[in-house]
Amino acid sequence: MKDLFFVYNAESSYINMIFDAGHKIISPGNYNRQLCALTHGKFGEKKEWKNFREGITAKTEFLHRDQFEIKFGVKYEYPVVLKKESGAFKIVLTRDDISQFNNVDEPINYLKMI
Known about the structure:
By secondary structure, the protein is of the alpha+beta class.
């Protein structure tokens, strides 16, 4: 597996993190952060995701969209999962792909196959 970059559709500010957490608790039905909703519950990272993340042998980075754009100077539709090969990013999972997953096991199983 190549280097993987998980880019969340959220800003990295502390205020934004509080707002997102509150939104996830108060109105989970219209929470539009698909990658975050899959990987994190109301009060933190899901156990299945944490186990997967800790077991990945590839180099991984988890970034908010503002962090990613500052670091690499490119933009995508977020959320997105990318792999880096020969210095170039390739899309592994698009926003639409991520929105099709129903639970945390589905992206884990997909990512294990790449």
